[in-house]
UniProtKB/TrEMBL annotation:
Coiled coil residues, start to end: none
Source domain of life: Eukaryota
Highest classification ranks of the organism: Eukaryota, Sar, Alveolata, Dinophyceae, Suessiales
Keyword vocabulary terms for this entry: Membrane, Transmembrane, Transmembrane helix
Protein name in UniProt: SLC35F6 protein
Listed transmembrane segments: 31-49, 56-76, 96-116, 128-154, 182-206, 213-230, 242-264
GO cellular component, one term: membrane
Length: 281
């Protein structure tokens, strides 16, 4: 139940932040969950799990924080430059900052979800598919009895509601294409969770977060290709600004920090705990 509720809260905050920023920036900021996962691991190491962080972990976290700072700075400056070129005010930049804060807040809960899943897999020794199944059941109950009624009762622009679920159900019934896309999305989420829980069980929550960060390159390349190769007026595209190089640098620093944290890149003269294979040999 606990990781399912973390997933609902984290996904909700991230989706709200997604409304105010480009897709590539949102994906880059998702790398923040390794920072919060490391912080949560440090807290759990003292309290209940009996694990610890070493010097290279903290160095990796510093690199991740620096990379996220560069990404956020490049995003704000780039949007400010674009708004000035289009004759707009600073409202878009303020919304971008709001989106960044919401996305980072969502990463706190998603990092907590990854750590909780690792605890269930290793300390409780539950099968991976069983963890996914229980999370899906608890998430379904949370959405059905709490999130959907709350969104329906809150005032908004969707027929007087923040979200009109009845109208959304009618839209799905009357549009086979939309229903097919929804089914494809559900299938992809199922496979994503099964694959993610398998990586967490075989390696760790941090390795899972590192692999997820690689999606950023694909999303960024897709956004640039939409703008420059398909339709430069499309809202799905992304413009290359003079500050995009800073965003690239932030991504590289972030990936470097993740590699150092996961001991994929080892710093000389630092102590690294032996792996299971090294202990066996």
């Amino acid at each position: 139940m606990v990781p399912a509720f973390f997933d609902v809260l984290g996904t909700g905050l991230c989706c709200m932040g997604f409304l105010f920023m480009p897709a590539s920036v949102w994906q880059l900021l998702r790398g923040a969950n390794i920072v919060f996962a490391g912080a949560l691991a440090a807290i759990f190491a003292v309290t209940c799990l009996g694990r610890r962080l070493y010097c290279f972990h903290y160095i990796g976290l510093v690199f991740c924080v620096a990379g996220l700072f560069l990404v956020g700075l490049a995003s704000v400056w780039g949007h400010d430059l674009q708004a000035a070129a289009e004759g707009k005010g600073s409202g878009n930049v303020q919304l971008l900052m709001l989106g960044i804060c919401l996305a980072l807040a969502g990463q706190v809960f998603q990092a907590a979800q990854a750590v909780a899943e690792e605890w269930l897999l290793r300390d409780v020794d539950l099968p991976g598919l069983q963890v996914v199944g229980f999370q899906g059941a608890w998430g379904f109950l949370a959405m059905l009895f709490f999130v959907f009624p709350m969104l329906y009762l809150l005032p908004g622009q969707d027929h007087g509601h923040a979200e009109d679920e009845v109208n959304a159900f009618q839209l799905l019934r009357s549009n086979p294409t939309l229903s097919a896309m929804m089914g494809l999305y559900i299938f992809s989420v199922v496979m994503y969770n099964i694959s993610g829980i398998a990586v967490t069980g075989a390696l760790s929550a941090v390795h899972r977060l590192m692999i997820e960060a690689l999606r950023t390159l694909i999303v960024w390349a897709f956004g640039l290709s939409i703008h420059y190769l398909v339709d430069h007026t499309s809202a799905l595209g992304e413009v290359w600004t003079p500050y995009s190089w800073l965003e690239v640098a932030g991504f590289l620093v972030l990936m470097m920090g993740q590699a150092i944290y996961g001991a994929l890149i080892k710093i000389p003269l630092l102590y690294y705990p032996p792996t299971g294979i090294e202990v066996a040999s």
